[in-house]
Amino acid sequence: MRASRFLPFLLLAAALPGLAHAQTARPALQDPAAVVAQAEGLLQERAASWPGRAIITVEPPRIVNQQACERMEVFLAGSGLQSRTPVGVRCLAPQPWTLYVQASIRILGPYFVANRLIRRGEVLSLDDLDTREGDLLRNRRLIGDPAHIVGWIATRRIRAGGAIESSALRDPNAIERGQQVRTIARGVGFVATSEGQALESGSPGAQIQVRTPGGQIITGTVIDAHTVQVMM
């Protein structure tokens, strides 16, 4: 009778070594720091094409049951770099899993501001510009390359000290909607020129529609500020 009272304890003691072995044999969980490092590496690679200094912060993931990964790949879960960018992390082996981490990104770089009042229709020169530093990723219309400003035409008033944005400038070789243009039609063995009215705005290389004097609408490629080429 006394031995039967201790039987459950004896059985539990016999099972303990097996339970301890099962616990030690459980696969190790993924190190969150390794996930963060992979995400940071991808974002640094993508930010390298920007003209500035990238400041990247990745939030460590919450690891629940993701097994330690031997083959890991990362990818952007959104549409390119954003101030807040989700990054996907996928494990390929030994146990597949996927998780997402959130990253904050700033790209600090130089951009140009007007050092005087610039009126609509004025052609900008280097003497009209001062530089500032800011987050180029937050405002993608900021311009850091003077080649995209000097010689270009202001399409609206820009106050002194105001940032010069791409939306406020027009390529001097571009065609504006409503403008009269010359059309050149090229075919096998012939070239024909005519006139027309641009129905769209476009920079060199862009496809725009033009209305001919007879009312026909044709599509051509902008060559310069006055010419559209039509392939026959």
UniProtKB/TrEMBL annotation:
The keyword Cytoplasm does not apply. Residues 109-170 form the SAF domain. The keyword Transport does not apply. It holds the Pfam family ChapFlgA. Its main location: periplasm. SMART domains: SAF (SM00858). Keywords: Bacterial flagellum biogenesis, Cell projection, Cilium, Flagellum, Periplasm, Signal. GO terms for cellular component: periplasmic space. It is found in: Periplasm. Gene3D superfamilies: 2.30.30.760, Antifreeze-like/N-acetylneuraminic acid synthase C-terminal domain. Residues 1-22 form the signal peptide. GO terms for biological process: bacterial-type flagellum assembly. Transmembrane segments: none annotated. Belongs to the FlgA family. This is Flagella basal body P-ring formation protein FlgA. It comes from Castellaniella ginsengisoli. The lineage of its organism: Bacteria, Pseudomonadati, Pseudomonadota, Betaproteobacteria, Burkholderiales. The gene is flgA.
